[in-house]
Known about the structure:
Elements: E1 9-10, E2 15-18, E3 21-24, H1 28-37, E4 43-47, H2 55-58, E5 63-64, H3 73-83, H4 90-110, E6 116-117, E7 120-121, E8 123-124, E9 134-135, H5 142-155, E10 160-164, E11 166-174, E12 177-185, E13 190-195, E14 198-201, H6 222-229, E15 234-235, E16 240-247, H7 259-263, E17 267-269, H8 289-303, E18 308-311, H9 317-323, H10 325-333, E19 343-352, E20 355-357, E21 369-371, E22 376-377, H11 390-411, E23 421-422, H12 437-447, H13 454-467, H14 478-499, E24 522-525, E25 532-534
Parallel strand pairs: 2-13, 3-4, 3-14, 4-10, 14-21, 20-22
Antiparallel strand pairs: 1-23, 5-9, 6-7, 8-9, 11-12, 12-13, 15-20, 15-24, 16-19, 17-18, 18-19, 24-25
Helix pairs in contact: 1-5, 1-11, 3-4, 4-11, 6-14, 9-10, 12-13, 13-14
The chain binds flavin-adenine dinucleotide.
Transmembrane segments: 21-38
Active site: 289
Organism: Orenia metallireducens
Amino acid sequence: MLPRYLKNFDTAKLRKEESDFLVIGTGIAGLVTALNLAKSGKVTLLSKERLAECNTEYAQGGIAAVIAKEDTPQSHYQDTLEAGAGLCNPKAVDILVNEGSKRIKELIDLGVNFDRKGEQILLTKEAAHSCRRILHAGGDATGREIRKSLVEQVASEDNVTLEDGIFAVDLLTDNQEVHGILAYDRRQEEYLLYLSKVVVLATGGAGQIYHATSNPSVATGDGIALAYRAGAKVTDLEFVQFHPTTLELEGVDNFLISEAVRGEGGVLRNQAGDRFMTRYHQLADLAPRDIVARAIYQEMKVSGADHVYLDVTALDSAFIKKRFPTIYRTCLDHGIDISQDYIPVAPAAHYLMGGILSNLHGETNIKGLFACGETACIGIHGANRLASNSLLDGLVFGKRVADRATTYLNQGDFSKGISLKYEAQSTIEDIGKIPSKERVKGLMSAKLGIVRERTELEKGLAEADNLLAYLNYDLSNVHDFELQNLITLAHLSFKGALYREESRGAHYRKDFPVVETAWEKHIILQKDREWEELAIEFE
Ligand SMILES: Cc1cc2nc3c(=O)[nH]c(=O)nc-3n(C[C@H](O)[C@H](O)[C@H](O)COP(=O)(O)OP(=O)(O)OC[C@H]3O[C@@H](n4cnc5c(N)ncnc54)[C@H](O)[C@@H]3O)c2cc1C
C-alpha cells in the first residue's frame, strides 16, 4: 500500500508560510509562471537545490518557434504530430505552435540574446523539423541564457519570494482540493508548511531514474510522485525519450551532444567507420530521435562496443568553436578535439513525455493544483517529443497556467484551511539496509531501456513493487525522499510499459514490434484505482 504522505507530521506544530500562489521549480516553466503571476498576488517560488540546478540550465540546442518567413504554424504543428506518433493532443499542439512566436518575442523583450547574424536571428535545423526553426543563444547555451534573463526579471518583482534549498515533500490536500505543501528546509533542517490556494508543480523531469542520463541530479520525478500520492492522475509514463548522442566515456557523466550538431552536418559512424543511419531511415542522421537511438543500440549490440561515433571533422573548425563552444570545451577537457577526433557517443535517458495529466490550462484533477513543463503531460509531445519543443512547452504553458490560476484565485470558491495530523509510517528505526538510488537506476536501465519485452518488464515490476515497501517508513532526508519518489515512478513506468502491448514512438516492445491502432490512447494511472484508458484527446 502506498502511503498518502512520506512523512508523519502535525500541521499545528509546524512553521507556516502563506502566499496567494505557490510555484515549485525554477526552470523555464516555473519562472515563466511566477513572472506572469506576479501582477496578480504574492508568489512564493521554490527550488530544492540552488536555482540554476535544473534541466533548463543545461538545454543546449535551442527553442523551436515559427519565426522564419518560409515557415508556418501548420508546418510546425505537422512535424510535432508526426514525431508524437499518434498520441499528441492536437489542441495542445495547436496552442504551442500558434502562441510560441509571441512568447519568444516577449523573451527577446526581457533581454534574451538569441544568436544573430547582423539583425537576423539565426535558426538551426534539428531532427524531424521540416525547416530551420530553432533559435539558439550563446551558441549551445540556450537554456542558460533564457534562465538567466528570466531569473533576473523574477528577482526584480516585489511580489515574488524566491527560495532555494526547499524540498517539496508532499501536497497538502483535503477532499481533492490543494492547500499547500509539506516542505523540508535543507538549510534550517526543519519541516514547514507553505500554504496556498494555488500550487503549481513545475518540478521537471526524471532522467535520474536511469544510470545513463543527460539530466542533472535534481531530475528525480518528485512532482509526479507526490502528485500521484495525493490522487492526481498521471499518464504516458512509458514514454521516455533516449537522446541518441551523449558523450560515452568511462567514469564521465553522459554529457549531451546536441542534435543541432547533426543539424549542422555531423554524422554518425559505427566501429567500422560506416555511416550506418542511411540504412535505417531516409532522413539518415536527422531521423526522429527514437529511430536514431534504436539504430545506435543495434549497432552497439552488433559490435559489442558501448558507443558509436559522431563525426564533425568535416565542419570548419572555427565554426565548431563558435557554434558549439560548450560542447567543444567539454570534449576537449576529456581529451577529444572534436574538430579532429570522432566523439564516442551512446544514447541516454533525456526527456519524459509523460507526467501529471493536465488540461490546456495546466489544471489537474485536484482543485487548485496546476502543472506545467516537463513534469506535466498536456499532450504536446505524444509518444516522442520533437526536438526543441520542450523549452517552448514551458514558455507557452507556464503563461497559460498563470492566466488560469489567476482566474481561479479570483473566483474565491475555497474551503477553509487545512488542519491535519498524519501518522501512518512505521517509526521502526531498523528497517535493514535502505536500497540505493543505484538499485532503482539499475533496474530501470536493465529492464525498461530502449528495447523492452514482457518477461523483463514483469520482473522489473515485481522488483519495483517490492521496493515500494520502503515508502512506508518514516525516512527523513532529501536523498531518501528522492529515492522513494524514484521507486514510485519506477513502479508506475513498469506498469505503463507492460500494459502497452505495441511499439510506438519511444516505447519499443520487441514482443510487439508494430504500432497497433487499438492502442492510440493513453494509459492513465491514479492511486487506489485500476488503470483506465482514454481517447486521443485529453480535453
Ligand atoms: C542536457 C539537456 C539538454 C536539453 N536541450 C534542450 C533543447 O535544446 N531544447 C529544448 O527544448 N529542450 C531541451 N532539453 C529539455 C528541456 O531542457 C527541459 O525539458 C525543460 O528545461 C524542463 O523545464 P522545466 O521548467 O519543466 O524543469 P526544470 O528546468 O528541470 O526545472 C525543475 C525545477 O524543479 C525543482 N524541483 C524538482 N523537484 C523539486 C522538489 N521536490 N521540491 C522543490 N523543487 C523541486 C528543481 O530544483 C528545478 O528548479 C534539454 C534537457 C537536457 C537535460
